[in-house]
Design a protein that fits this description.
Mean pLDDT of chain A: 87
CATH superfamily of the largest domain in chain A: RNA polymerase sigma factor, region 2, helix turn helix motif
CATH class of the largest domain in chain A: Mainly Alpha
Number of strands of chain A: 0
Mean pLDDT of chain B: 65
Shape of chain A: globular
Structural class of chain B: mainly alpha
Oligomer: heterodimer
Order of helices and strands of chain A: HHHHHHHHH
Number of helices of chain A: 9
Number of domains of chain A: 2
Helix content of chain A: over 70%
Radius of gyration of chain B: 41 Å
Order of helices and strands of chain B: HHHHHH
CATH topology of the largest domain in chain A: Rna Polymerase Sigma Factor, Chain: A
Structural class of chain A: mainly alpha
CATH architecture of the largest domain in chain A: Orthogonal Bundle
Largest sheet of chain B: none
Chain lengths: 185, 180
Amino acid sequence: MEAADINLIEACKKGEPRAQREVYARFSPMMFAVALRYTNNARTDAEDILQESWIKVFRHIKSFSEHNSFEGWLRRIVVNTAITHYRRNQKHAFQLDVDEVYATPADLEAFKELDFTREELASAIAQLPKGYGMVFNMYVIEGFKHKEIAEQLGIDLNTSKSQLSRARKYLQGILNNMSKRATKA
Amino acid sequence: MKAEEFDQYVRSQFREEAAMPPVGVEAAVFAAVDAESKGRRRVRPAAALLIAAATGAALWLNAPESVPAETPQPVQAAPVQAAPVSAAPAEAAAVTQEAAELPLEQNHDSGTVTVPEQTAVPSGTSSSVAIGNPVQPQPLEPIGSRNAASVVAAGEGNAAELQRKGEETWVLPAVVKVND
């Protein structure tokens, strides 16, 4: 971490509003993108997660050690907040049996070369059923282990593994359809 | 394509992800942060005041109990101790106490030595024990009743006796048993 960043974080630890604003301006776009991914692009939910995350950041910034990555720390806070949000909403949500809703498409062998933009991928991930999306985001993008995912989401370890496998197939189906449409056009 | 390759590809695409949040979020975040810090600022003096009040109250409640405890016991004992010694003059008790505190050479000018009377209060007993003791205290020995010469002579005699027996000067008392 650079000296300027350390000074900025130190100023935030002292509660200096100018430093807080600067940190917010610098890291909010990254945090909002993460929040959007976890809410399947539902902007209102993502805004709530972002706001909640920043309050947690400024409340607990004194516990942050300069030896760690600040961006990684912020990302982890957003993910944890999104998980809390997801679990809170899950209590009231109607649970779909995704296996019956969507048939799994062709397997990964169909893709010889991947050529999708980030927006296309983000759009495809947002179409994943919520449970699949959570596991996929946590495992593939954030790098969580299945044990951590199971603990965080309150699911079985094998459920996490099977959901990831299904999420991959599901995503490939979406991407396959996207590329077919692009070819036709 | 293997699953790991697919994961790697997706991960690389999201390495620099960013999306601008609406302006309203910033205002909401800092309003909440300000409210929280203001709340903390209000709570801190109140907590300090509460702690100060509690400490003050505790000190005030403990104060009457602690005052007698701090008063040294001999001060109270002095008049009680003096009362039974009706036969001895008051200044004799004072002189004895002084003599116990002062070294022997204090009275060298007058040629007399005051030896503190150890038998009145045995060593290891506190003054409070002495107060409760029903045994009548012995009248104090007046200063000058024993001269320095006799004390020195007693010490020398002891050393001389030791030298005579063992042909050595024993500084510390010791018992030596010699087995044949």
